[in-house]
Amino acid sequence: MIVVIDERELVTEGYNSLFNREGVASAGFAPREFGEWVETVAEDELKAVSAFLLGQCEEGNISAQRIRERSPAPMIALSERNSLDDTLRMFEWGVDDVVRKPVHVREILARITAIRRRAQQDAATYAQVGEMRIYFDGRDPEVDGEVLPLPRRERRILEYLAGNPTRRVTKTQIFNAIYGIFDENVEENVVESHISKLRKKLREKLGYDPIDSKRYLGYRLAGD
């Protein structure tokens, strides 16, 4: 989930719509609302945030240091002026990148991936699980070198499972990562439907079910 912070509701709603088209969950905040949220949100919910996108905010309303204390997710500032002084000031404030508007949301997603990759020097752009190669940059997975086209939600669930190879993840954690923690229009049980469809497709390609599930414990991706 990407958190968008801007004083203008029209801007946050616009980005929410654009990210949703790319199959990426997002949530919009006014600066003061965000300040209260980041101080009180539960740790498990905060882990669902993949990046913070900072738009127009009054100086002093947001603390980059406090964000960093609570989350390692990248912080990207959106600049509406071609000003070197403004850009340098944003970097001094603590952001990881500054992007001048207008910018396509796919470029923002690519920048987030690049920042996370630099932060984790050993991190790969894909995970190899048995015969599956699962990418983290939006590409469809491959099975024995053959592309397996997947709907966006199913692909995102597979990426999330591959990105958590050493632990089981719950239905709630998957829902938060894929739909965002503020989507009240979608029931959490939709995750089970997506996973059922994903399992069927993987089973047809692999000859076995690579998604191991245990009641009350969650899901885990495993090779044969």
UniProtKB/TrEMBL annotation:
CDD domains, per the entry: trans_reg_C (cd00383)
A GO term for molecular function: phosphorelay response regulator activity
Coiled coil: none
GO biological process, one term: regulation of DNA-templated transcription
GO CC annotation terms, alphabetical: cytosol; protein-DNA complex
Limits of the Response regulatory domain: 1-116
Keywords tagged on the record: DNA-binding, Transcription, Transcription regulation
SUPFAM superfamilies recorded: C-terminal effector domain of the bipartite response regulators, CheY-like
Superkingdom of the organism of origin: Bacteria
Pfam families attached to this UniProt entry: Trans_reg_C (PF00486)
Domain OmpR/PhoB-type: 124-223
DNA-binding residue intervals: 124-223
Protein name (Swiss-Prot/TrEMBL): Winged helix family two component transcriptional regulator
